[in-house]
Amino acid sequence: MRIRTAGVVALFALALAASGCGDSDEPAAKESPKAAGGKLVIWADDKRTAALKPFAEKFGQENGVTVEVQAVPNEDLQNNFVTVSSQGGGPDVVIGAHDWIGNLVQNGAIDPVQLPDEQKAAFNETAIKAVTFNGQLYGVPYAQENLALIRNTELAPEAPKTIEDLVATGKQLKAQKKVTETLCLQVGQKGDAYHIYPLYSSAGGYLFGTTANGDYDPKDLGVGKPESIAAFKKIAALGEKGEGVLKRSIADTNSTATFTGKKCAFLVSGPWATADVKKAGIKYDVSAVPGFAGGKAAAPFVGVQSFYVAAKGKNKALAQEFVVNYVAKPELAVALYQADPRPPALTAALDQVKGSDPDLAKFIEAGKNGQVLPAIPAMAAIWDPFGKAEAAVIGGADPTSTVTAAGKTIAGSIK
Amino acid sequence: MSTPLSGPGSAQQAPGRGPVRTGSPRTSRTARNHAPITVAGLAAKVILLGLVAGIAIWAAFPLVEAEMWVWLAVLVLTTAALFYLYLGRRHIPAKYLVPGTLFLIAFQVVPVLYTASTAFTNFGDGHRGSKDDAIVAIQSSSVKQVPGSAQYPMSVATKGDPATGALVFLITDPQTNTVSVGDARGLRPLDPGAATVAPGGKVTAADGYTVLNVGQASARSKDITDLVVPTAGGALRSSGLSRVYEGKAVRAYDAGCDCVKDSDSGRTWTADGEVGAFVATDGERLAQGWKVNVGLSNFTRVLTDERISGPFLGTLIWNFAFAIGSTGGTFILGMLIALALHSPRMRGTNLYRMLLILPYAMPSFAMLLVWRDMFNTDFGLINNLFGLSVDWFGQDWSARAAVILVQLWLGYPYMFLVATGALQAIPRELTEATSVDGASPWQSFKAVTLPLLLVALSPLLISSFAFNFNNFNAIYLTTEGAPFPADNPSNGATDLLITYTYRLAFGGQAAQFGFAAAISLFIFAIVAVVSAVSFRRTRQQEDVYA
What we know:
The complex is a heterodimer.
Chain A: H1 2-22, E1 39-44, H2 46-63, E2 66-71, H3 74-86, E3 93-97, H4 101-106, E4 110-111, H5 117-120, H6 125-130, E5 132-133, E6 136-137, E7 139-146, E8 148-152, H7 163-175, H8 193-202, E9 208-210, E10 216-221, H9 226-237, H10 255-260, E11 266-269, H11 274-279, E12 284-287, E13 301-310, H12 316-326, H13 330-339, H14 347-354, H15 358-366, E14 371-372, H16 380-394, H17 399-413
Parallel strand pairs in A: 1-2, 1-3, 13-14
Antiparallel strand pairs in A: 3-13, 4-13, 5-6, 7-13, 8-11, 8-12, 9-10
Helix pairs in contact in A: 2-13, 8-9, 9-17, 13-14, 16-17
Chain B: H1 39-65, H2 69-87, H3 92-118, H4 131-141, E1 143-145, E2 151-158, E3 167-172, E4 179-183, E5 186-189, E6 195-197, E7 203-206, E8 210-211, H5 214-219, H6 221-226, E9 229-230, E10 235-238, E11 243-249, E12 251-254, E13 259-262, E14 268-272, E15 277-279, H7 297-304, H8 306-309, H9 312-342, H10 349-361, H11 364-374, H12 381-386, H13 396-425, H14 428-436, H15 441-469, H16 472-476, H17 497-506, H18 513-545
Helix pairs in contact in B: 1-2, 3-18, 9-13, 9-15, 10-13, 13-15, 14-15, 15-18, 17-18
Pfam families (chain A): SBP_bac_8
GO molecular function (chain A): carbohydrate transmembrane transporter activity; maltose binding
Family (chain A): Belongs to the bacterial solute-binding protein 1 family.
């Protein structure tokens, strides 16, 4: 009997599987319109879900609609969203980084939003620029972030003006056996384009040129150009075969821990690192990532977190209402800041929290020279080859041939 | 794990070459042809078959809705066949075979066929949906606010029932506070005084109209987004539920020329069915494309693209070395330990066994990450412990040795377990007989134990080989393929074919599922050939030793 039962169980599971295959075209939710108004589904990552929930519920109660905030892990969010969207389903509102926009637009997953000018003016200018793509506003920003130099003020009381200053201080501390590393800037075996970019830009390198209207131009690739080779030569001089300041052994997994363990006096990281630093009880200060002496100002990438209206959402009008009129309220931005301490993009919200958190203003100041992280789909082709070229150069490879090869690889995968 | 792994009693276990995994007896007790019908059995059958019927009905509705008649027929036939089969007393063999076969079809054959069919398309980012989807996306993302125009407060209203009536926008001009009614025919003014306007400009009530609240309006979301009020400069569209803006779709699809025209710049992009995109004369493509059949181009790209085919052979050789090294290394180590613990003179075997299984019991994900950190040049445990400064993941051979070492640590407990099981299935009389005949322990191992072990373990070794051949995590969570040659960032020294293809398909501009599917078919072919050859050889071996 047992096996026969097992067969029936199997059958049951099979029927389930079969139905799973068949119902890809599930009919649109057909609740009677009179029942409890519409429903708004929001996708966010775990941290933001918690912060958003009370506001979403309030919005729902005030307006007689059901709001559902669903937590999706950050690393899967974009991909899951694009996948369900191409099947014609998914959420009405999505929260994510602005550099997703290029990919979301090419997959027809999000719609532009229309903010009146006075509302646009309430946001930080960089943030609005970041969510503008092909001349259209695709999201409503709520927070922005960029790299800065976090230093242990007990070891290094003065903010270094240049990389050379930083290296001199770090070396001195190292000679005094106070630290074991000059600088904690994560590289890893695969490199890290995001974290090296301030130095790369200071040394004269660029990723994409800009078109007449200020958008990034995928046809003008800076990697592999003479400027980029010159920049990588400067980076190589700081590498393992040079000054030993940049090392592949310092990676995303141990960079902050090395700093909080007082093994280095300088850490290049973003607002997300301050929580750990505070927890370790380290006296620290935040300043801009310094550039090379005589070079350009170091430009960290500025990233923006934003709300998007899904193109295939069931309730687009409500989603627009939520994103355009509700998200732009300072209270929500402050709550999201408390969930995850990144500087709010809404000027009024920033002013509110600035007083209690002096780091915020410093991070914004550090991002003053920053460049908006390119959102064009071609950017996805940069990360991996660029990072690897960086790791190779830091490990002692010849900058000219390495960067030229990386440039070719990148150009080859840009359509 | 209730069965002891070994112990004094286990030596008496009947000899057999069946599955060596402990703990699951493979035979059942009674013949079932005339098994008595028990209440529990009957109830289970009724409930489960009822569920099958219920699920079939539940699955049928969407199929009817989508007019997928073929699938509906398949569903009906399958369900009917299952009922016929399990309600009758005949067709006993089929009762056993059908579930397995159906599972095989659902979970093996269909995915393989789906992968194969994907390999002939350009499915990927920017080419996910249909052409119609792309056109909708292009048009709706080109709606721009007319330069210099303002946004106006708006309320959604209707003359009929809020749930079904035709909708209008009640639009207030904030300058003059006059209210207009807008619908698909255009904008016309409402009598002054007929509407109550709240501060901020939103109409809260109007004579003859029911103003919808947010809840009611949100239930009509699609009607609201679709309502476009034509004006001289463009059209008023809703932005949410409380504002309208004057917008204009800059790009429009023209079915006549099968092209998209931009009214601002005057440019034209013509549909190209070969690549699934709208392409301008200068080669510029619109980002929103659609999925098309591209024939063999994914396969030819693998073979002809220098960057892909160039490092392919080297990667393939290392891939074999990795799979053989991981499987062989873990097998030899596991077997040696199993042999040592199998010796009757060994004491404390259970403690040893427990300790040896530990690596197997820990999640390999976490262990791989821990190992990666242990190999760190400056901060890693290995270098610190031994006072080395080896750049483990920075050099080709040290990185390769490191990943194989990690695999060895992760994998030998499994081999130890299965070898222990298999050893216990080899009757001691055989080895005792050889020693009576005067064979040395080595001779007896070589002539009796090892061949019998291999006969029992070969299928496991082959499956372990196939698993390690595609062991994505082992590389991706440790070296991520590093070190990479300075001149080729797409292929590293420890890259397996699977990590290499993952990078090719998803590491570039966007996810290219079609291309990834084509490469996985290549890998599938390689693994299938290797497995087929190995199984063939195993069978020959079995014929000799059986």
